[in-house]
Amino acid sequence: MKRLGREYEKLEALNLFSLLPVDHELAIRDQSRKTSFLAQIDAGLDRALKSESTLHGIRVQTMFQLMVANFDKVRLIKQEDAGECYYGSDERLQVPDFKVVTAHGQLLLIETKNHYRTDPLTPFSMREADLHALSGYSSLLHIPLKFAVYWANWNTWTLNDPSVLKCDGQRARMDFGEAISASEMADLGDFMIGTKYPLVLRIPAATDKPRSISPEGEVQISTAGLEFYCAGERLEDDLEKSIAFYLMMCGKWEMSSPGAGLDEDGRPTGILYTFDPSEIHSGQGFEIMALRRNVTGPKRA
Question: pLDDT digits over 55-81, tens only?
């Protein structure tokens, strides 16, 4: 996705200059007006840098924007909560963070939220008044509202409709299980990776060259290529093998200690690396694999 460039240091500075309260009897080029503006900016930035909640909020908002900009099911993402806004309703309105256009032409308003608690099972909550204010803006524009919540303890994003939140008159809440089961992140192009298990990498030994295994278990072989297995089935397709290798190297499944197959003479036939999920959900037949951060996906050669 391409970034629509603007002269931020020029245009945004001028926009902010026109928004902040000043003595409007002063000409726009009056040096004292500029001095007053810079003093307000300095004080406001100082307050922001001292506010942990503000910094975390901006960080998560930026993280969401950059993540979505790399999804293949999003055609446009734009900051919505910027600039002046006038409205004639008596009810309080709150502007969501982003406007998004999906690949299917669906228009969404998305409010980002950061959720971190010492107890990772603590439900996400927000003020019910804020929920109504955001919903009021959404209704006025006739654009669906969604909440993108970053569950920091789980390093996971969910995208949820406001209907998932349960209100008690003061707070609106949802727990992680409710959020993940009703998440609509796939609509933006975000997917979870699931596969059968175990994943096995076998390095076969060249049988026409010396092979040995010491009493301490040290294997000496000459390798003869790589073999990949998933749930006991050998993979033959090059792309499937590339995906399996990527998941082994970049996934968070546990790797067992290397093992060696032996022939009838006690010589090693190869080395095995086995990768298994840490938790097994009975009857499912596959497990979700989380990936380590800062990795890129496999590509067909």
Answer: 877 889 999 999 999 898 999 999 998
Tell whether domain 51-188 is in CATH 3.10.20.30.
Answer: no
- Helix 52-68 to helix 31-49 angle (10° resolution) is 90
Q: Is 38 in a helix, a strand, or coil?
A: helix
* Span 165-183, average pLDDT: 94
Q: Do residues 62 and 81 make contact, with C-beta atoms less than 8 angstroms apart?
A: no
Q: Give the span between the Cα atoms of 235 and 247, in whole angstroms.
A: 14
pTM: 0.67
Q: Could you give the residue range(s) of every CATH 3.40.1350.10 domain in the chain?
A: 51-188
**What is Dmax (Cα atoms) for the chain?**
98
Which of 187, 126, 193 has its CA nearest to residue 162? 126
Averaged pLDDT, 91-105? 94
